[in-house]
Design brief:
This protein is α/β, with parallel strands linked by helices. It has helices at about 15-25, 40-50, 65-80, 100-130, 140-145, 150-170, 190, 195-205, 215-225, and strands at about 5-10, 30-35, 55-60, 85, 135-140, 175-185, 235-240. The structure holds NADP nicotinamide-adenine-dinucleotide phosphate (NAP). The site of NADP nicotinamide-adenine-dinucleotide phosphate (NAP) has 31 residues, from helix 1, strand 2, helix 4 and helix 7.
Length: about 250
Amino acid sequence: MEDRIAIVTGASRGIGRAIAVELGRRGATVIVNYRSSEDAAQQTAALITQAGSAAHLAQADVSDFAQAEALIEQVVTDHGKVDILVNNAGITRDTVIMMMSEGDWDAVITTNLKSAFNCCKAAVRRMMRKRYGRIVNISSVAGIAGNAGQTNYSASKAGLIGFTRALAREVAARHITVNAVAPGFVLTDMTADLPDNIKDGALGAIPLGRWAEPEEIGYAVAFLASDEAAYITGQVLSVDGGMVMG
Ligand code: NAP
């Protein structure tokens, strides 16, 4: 991926960090976006540098339209283009619908779904000019199968799948591919505080019998972001240990 400029949103921690490091390991220059965890983002950048590639920090709340546009604009100003965009930034506000506030709903939909619109809208314009682009949206098994206590999150992740397929059709003629990766359970800050009974229950539903390492999501994303994946678009790649098949 030498000469490729990649942006990973929410790359300070967890899955985003693993994706950013894997893209760096493959030679891409990586823009490490984060919202508030600057120290953690610096650690991500250090790992990319250790892997032999350039990394640049970029603070932005990508759920904010203007900040997302400014993020992409800055990358194009500094590096001349954006080749790879990974929409990874995400949050949860889990509770059953009876307890879910309007704020819980809006925060999750805005962060998980609108962010992808914000970043894609800005990036696609630049990718079209270059007639090249790789967009990977991080969905979830919850967006395919649904998850009790996560109506907001499941809706946002299902929305990302529809968004991925529609955008893939819009931009295919310009050699831009748009795919989604749907992880199952991955041990990160997002899942660390889940109650033990939920964690154990999840384990029972995973044919491979274990949670994913963040790096395993990174490998799948890096493949879809590579030149080798040029003939794959509009697809959802589940990386879930076999939780959802078919
Ligand atoms: P995480 O450890 O909680 O990390 C979330 C990342 O998103 C952080 O880097 C955070 O930045 C960033 N972020 C949140 N809101 C943002 C915003 N408005 N603008 C920019 N960055 C923002 O989560 P994770 O588990 O790695 O999850 C990463 C993605 O994978 C999410 O989309 C999640 O839904 C998805 N996913 C996770 C799992 C799982 O089991 N963990 C399963 C399926 C899908 P700061 O550090 O600066 O706050």
